[in-house]
From TrEMBL:
GO molecular function: ATP binding; ATP hydrolysis activity; transmembrane transporter activity
Domain ABC transporter residue range list: 5-224
Keywords: ATP-binding, Nucleotide-binding, Transport
GO cellular component: plasma membrane
UniProt cross-references to InterPro entries, sorted A to Z: AAA+_ATPase, ABC_transporter-like_ATP-bd, ABC_transporter-like_CS, ABC_transpr_LolD-like, MacB-like_ATP-bd, P-loop_NTPase
Pfam families, alphabetized: ABC_tran
Taxonomic classification: Bacteria, Pseudomonadati, Pseudomonadota, Alphaproteobacteria, Rhodobacterales
Record organism: Stagnihabitans tardus
Record SUPFAM superfamilies: P-loop containing nucleoside triphosphate hydrolases (SSF52540)
UniProt similarity note: Belongs to the ABC transporter superfamily.
Protein name per Swiss-Prot or TrEMBL: ATP-binding cassette domain-containing protein
One record GO biological process: lipoprotein localization to outer membrane
Length: 224
């Protein structure tokens, strides 16, 4: 079986004007097997978010390759990249980015409708996920009516709504208290084991990182 995600020799730099180009990633490479949960650990500003954006086809590397399940993602059109991202990847960010005019349940249903899932099925999936993370009683509330921790748990459900093969998470429990962080992480691990989902999780939480299958460290643009 092919690896869910392969990054090979990823370079990424940004032009800082008079300061010249700053290289954020230098030959970064990693492999993620089906059902594997891997921690990506690095200090702030080390390039974790950049790496996740390239892995999730939100940004393009200056050099190197991104492969999903044995299929190279290089050379795809914008439409093809969007289709691959929508079908293969779920994202969780430290800041949830929920749609403010929609309820918690609607925020989980909408990505499924865009993917062609019937509304009744999408709502059932949404309620199941909300129940798993302990916020089903808030299904009819808009984001402004939810606490930060509740919003983050809804964002986590939204990322899983379409049954992605790859979950990319950028400090996903950064806004949660320790009890809720532990609960959300336990749900994630349960879903990974059930479905074979692969997850790459950038985190500063070393206790959480220690509970994952592997830990990778980003050091001067390289993964070690």
């Amino acid at each position: 079986m092919s690896d869910t995600l392969v990054l090979e020799g990823i370079d990424k730099g940004y032009n800082r004007g008079k300061s010249g180009e700053v290289m954020v990633l230098r030959g970064a490479s990693l492999r993620l097997a089906p059902g594997e949960v891997v921690a990506l650990v690095a200090p702030s500003g080390a390039g974790k978010s950049t790496l996740l954006h390239i892995a999730g086809l939100l940004d393009q590397a200056d050099a190197g390759t991104v492969t999903y399940g044995g299929r190279a993602m290089g050379g795809l059109s914008d439409r093809e990249r969007t289709a691959a991202r929508r079908g293969e990847v779920g994202f969780v960010y430290q800041f949830h980015h929920l749609l403010p005019e929609f309820t918690a349940l609607e925020n989980i249903v909408l990505p499924q409708l865009a993917h062609g899932v019937p509304k009744a099925q999408a709502e059932a999936r949404g309620r199941d996920l909300l129940g798993r993370v302990g916020v089903l009683d808030r299904a009819g509330h808009r984001p402004a009516e939810l606490s930060g921790g509740q919003q983050q748990r809804v964002a986590f459900c939204r990322a899983l709504a379409n049954g992605p093969k790859l979950l990319l998470a950028d400090e996903p429990t950064g806004n949660l208290d320790p009890e809720n962080a532990a609960h959300v992480f336990a749900v994630l691990m349960e879903i990974v084991r059930e479905t074979g989902l692969s997850a790459l999780i950038a985190t500063h939480n070393m206790e959480m990182a220690a509970r994952m299958d592997r830990q990778l460290r980003l050091d001067q643009g390289r993964i070690v």
